[in-house]
Amino acid sequence: MRIGEIAALVGVTSRAVRHYHHIGLLPEPARQANGYRAYTVRDAVLLARIRRLTEIGLSLDEVRDVLADDAGRELGEVLAELDADLARQEREIQERRQVLAVLLEAPLTSDGPLSPALAALLDHAPATTSPAAAKDREHLALLDAAGDGAGAELFAALRPLAENPGVLALYERLDALEEAGADDPRIAPLAAELAAAVPDEVLAVIPEGEPSATGFGRVLLDDYPPAQRAVVRRVMEELAERVRRRGTS
Amino acid sequence: MRIGEIAALVGVTSRAVRHYHHIGLLPEPARQANGYRAYTVRDAVLLARIRRLTEIGLSLDEVRDVLADDAGRELGEVLAELDADLARQEREIQERRQVLAVLLEAPLTSDGPLSPALAALLDHAPATTSPAAAKDREHLALLDAAGDGAGAELFAALRPLAENPGVLALYERLDALEEAGADDPRIAPLAAELAAAVPDEVLAVIPEGEPSATGFGRVLLDDYPPAQRAVVRRVMEELAERVRRRGTS
DNA sequence: GCTTGACCTTGTCGCAGCGTCAACGTTTCT
DNA sequence: AGAAACGTTGACGCTGCGACAAGGTCAAGC
User: Fold this and answer.
1) Residue B29: pLDDT above 90?
2) Does A81 touch chain B (CB under 8 A)?
3) I need a surface site. Which of A6, A222, B165, B166 has the fewest CB within 10 A?
4) Taking a C-beta distance cutoff of 8 angstroms, is the pair A214, A236 a contact?
5) Inter-chain contact A97–B113, Cβ cutoff 8 Å?
6) Could you tell me the pLDDT band of residue A213, with boundaries at 50, 70 and 90?
């Protein structure tokens, strides 16, 4: 038999047979005078076993192991392990499909899919075209994807703030500072009002230490032009101060 | 932000971030004087969206598509397609696990897993140490894995032959011819008795044409030493003759 | 005898999504 | 000042072959 014949007989491609030779899974048969590989029925039987095992789902390495110690014992182990692996994959797929089902249900935001916690928060926030609000939403989305899962509590704690209609005016006052200098007189009062609007529940979620020391806080500040940055820094300082007072009282 | 910071913030590895740069998924940020990449919050937000999408199961190409036209419309299509794909995978896994369950149930043969049809046949065949019988089983296993699924009917048709206790004696007479010449006088009578033992049901499954013309028949013959080959060839010819007589009658 | 087409040969690249060196420069802590 | 922990580019590795390149071989038809 030549390679095309044995491949067709067993139901694999010639390329696969050569691949099995290359990785030492199937021994190279003798050659004819013209250099063609000359296969025997033994080879075909072995190749057929390889095909059966790969069809079940074994990797070529596992096939090699199973063929190596030709007791049937190892096969049992490998199959059991494979079944466990498939069961795990099945669970993973089901979980992902559940996530997908939720996402397909919800209206699609332009920021891509969000966690349910954040989606709920944004749902309750009023519609606005304020750039500062948009930036805030981006920052929340970033925190959402940060992966540590700590965002959920924060989002829940922010719910009263989102429902507070006075926040819109504060956002507009922040927008007005986009081109202002760091010494603008509007900074101090706006920061005070913003800090006052933050509900106490949020304080419990704020991480310890100076806010600008953590990478996240510093990076957020860098995202703002000078006057806005001054406002945000003051708000963060004020909140940190409230955390300290609360911790000692 | 430097690369390690943005990676930790979003929850991916630095290597992944560089990979996204390499494939053009995430634009390269400006560099600091020392050559380090300097990331902004914009980059982090974009990277976070990438992470959310890949976590859902999108390929990087699909992520690129979704980010490209930033309507939410394409995302819906991609997600639906992804869900369909996952559903398909889930079915495949379930089917393979069912196959596995059958295999784990049955006693493990040294020839590896067999189709249920062949396993049933070999279950009903008497135990023997005859080399010819072993070779026969190998050939059947080969046919079993040949993949065209045509083996199942043949195996069912062979059931009476397997249960025929006289077959053992015939196998032994075939074994005795292992070293014999092609002109041995025992060839003709053995071939006749073997052919007679083959039940009529088998004839319906034998493929048309001269048996030695098909690759499989010729190859099987080559697997035998001369005298045994002569026997097998005569049996095949005899069966072909019976097929013809049956077809015309 | 010559061409055509269907085989065969070895060797290499490609695929998805990074992990993991290598070999080297920068920053930072002690 | 030295070490540890960052950063840089570049390249190979993993799975299981498919696809191509650049030929050599063989049977059949003209």
Assistant:
1) yes
2) no
3) B165
4) no
5) no
6) very low
Find, among B109, B130, B127, B120, the residue nearest to B157 by Cα: B120
Predicted structure pTM score: 0.83
Question: B134, B125, B116, B192: which is closest to B165 by C-alpha?
Answer: B125
From the list A9, A103, A107, the residue facing B146 with the nearest CB is A9
Asked if strand C contacts B89 at the CB level, meaning under 7 A, the answer is no
Per the CB < 8 A criterion, the answer to whether A17 and A26 are in contact is: yes
**Locate tokens 């956002």: which residue?**
A171
**A63: nearest Cα among A12, A29, A14:** A12
Q: What is the DSSP letter of A211?
A: T
Contact of A134 with chain B, judged by CB distance below 8 Å, is answered with no
Report the C-alpha gap between A49 and B114 in whole angstroms.
Answer: 9
With contact defined as beta carbons under 8 Å apart, do B205 and B153 qualify?
yes
Residue A111 — very low, low, confident or very high, per pLDDT cuts 50/70/90?
low
Measured at the CA of B11, the angle between CA A234 and CA A150, to 5 degrees, comes to 55
Task: Give residue A247's identity as a one-letter amino acid code.
Answer: G
Q: Distance between CA A226 and CA B219 in Å, rounded? A: 84
Please list the alpha-helical segments (H only) found in chain B.
Answer: 3-10, 14-22, 41-56, 60-68, 73-105, 116-124, 131-145, 151-157, 159-163, 166-175, 187-197, 200-203, 215-222, 226-248
* Span A140-178, pLDDT tens digits: 888 887 756 667 788 888 888 888 888 889 899 999 999
- CA B100 vs. chain centroid, Å, equals 13
Please list the residues that pair with A31 across neighbouring strands.
A37
Rounded distance between C-alpha atoms, residue A26 and residue A21, angstroms: 5
Instruction: Count Cβ atoms below 10 Å from residue A234 Cβ, excluding itself.
Output: 17
pLDDT digits 0-9 by tens, A42-66: 999 999 999 999 988 899 999 998 8
